[in-house]
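Work Package 3 committed the consortium to producing structural models of liganded targets before the mid-term review. Because experimental data for this complex are still outstanding, the team generated a predictive model from sequence and the ligand definition alone, so that downstream docking and mutagenesis planning could proceed in parallel. The input record is reproduced below exactly as it was submitted to the modelling pipeline, together with the SMILES string for flavin-adenine dinucleotide.
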Amino acid sequence: MTSTPVTIIGAGLGGLTLARVLHVHGIPVTVHEAEPAPDARAQGGMLDIHDYNGQIALAAAGLTEEFRAIVLEGRQAMRVLDRDGAVLLDRPDDGTGGRPEVQRGELRRILLGSLPEGTVRWGSKVTGTRTLADGRHEVAFADGGTVVTGLLVGADGAWSRVRPLLSDAVPAYAGASFVETYLFDADTRHPAAAKAVGGGAMMALAPGGGIQAHREDGGRLHTYVALSRPREWFDAVDFSDAAGAIARIAQEFDGWAPELTSLLTESDSAPVLRPLYGLPVGHRWDRVPGVTLIGDAAHLAPPNGEGANLAMLDGAELGLALAAHPGDTEAALTAYERDMFPRGAEAATDGAELHALMFGEDAPHGLLAAFAAGEEEAAGAHPGQ
Ligand SMILES: Cc1cc2nc3c(=O)[nH]c(=O)nc-3n(C[C@H](O)[C@H](O)[C@H](O)COP(=O)(O)OP(=O)(O)OC[C@H]3O[C@@H](n4cnc5c(N)ncnc54)[C@H](O)[C@@H]3O)c2cc1C
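The resulting structure, written out as tokens with the ligand in place, is given here.
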């Protein structure tokens, strides 16, 4: 029984994990990626890869050893501060946590390196998709080309061009945005900030906002300043004027400890606005032959520390389902979606609860109470870090 060749749109962590699992099982696969080259864009910061989803996916991809080799030791340390810089919780990394940290770019490099040359078609930007009379799907590209496929997977993230084949849902603004900054060589150049952040992740939280930072490779501090404001509020800030934008965001943190606000005000990089969006919680669709979605395309949620992990697990599970049902694509897609829908909904619900603990009226004490109650899953996650 031969398997239908698979056409994946998007070479993010979800699409690449799917491609790798298919390759391991001898199923032909092509990935179309809009970006022109693997290094076209910086790949963002650190990801904690969980033993209950991301690590399972990497094992299915046969890449556990490669993953272990890129783990940054000690980065699972985590602390919670208040706006005055007082340390309310300080958890060292004792090496027993189930969430080792890696650089996203390194993880993507491993996945790309595990695929045969030519699997990913770079500079292949999808502009539209449609279902043909024979039930197959046509994918149109920005360069005017088209591809017709019997099995199409949308792994193309928040603004998926494949999703309209299955659902009318569109992401909605989540009521908050992150502003991303970096301090380089912080132990030497910004010692107070480096001390406040500590060895791993730091969250300084208050109602309506917070400053979250993570120690990356080589003394680099990566910060997401979180602020609950309408989209229009951020639209009125001119991010093309880096100093002006920083000053405007910093105003909202007036009175906070300087070692915390310096993560923003002393930034060595121009601030980048990251508005947060989510699909409706529990987003699902009726089965349409020959097409499905994985990762953010299926269940985008505001950052809750799970998105990349879930995208990889979706990719691995879909790949395994296709391998387990050779010649019966619909059985594979049905089995995959049966597990994926509730998994995505549960993560989004947990993420919304976590967000409320971190930035709600009771912040940061709600989060600390969750820790005290032993809610490891909720409290151990740290959105956007
Ligand atoms: C600020 C921030 C912080 C986050 N922090 C974390 C974290 O700490 N831990 C965690 O687990 N998750 C985190 N997430 C969530 C995580 O980034 C996503 O859930 C994850 O990247 C989803 O993976 P994906 O493969 O589904 O989609 P993506 O990573 O978005 O990949 C989609 C790919 O498709 C390509 N593409 C898009 N459109 C087209 C097109 N038209 N044609 C062809 N290709 C296309 C894109 O270029 C991209 O390569 C964070 C998200 C944000 C915004």
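Reviewers should note the following from the model. Residues 240 and 270 are 9 Å apart (CA to CA). These observations will guide the Year 2 experiments.
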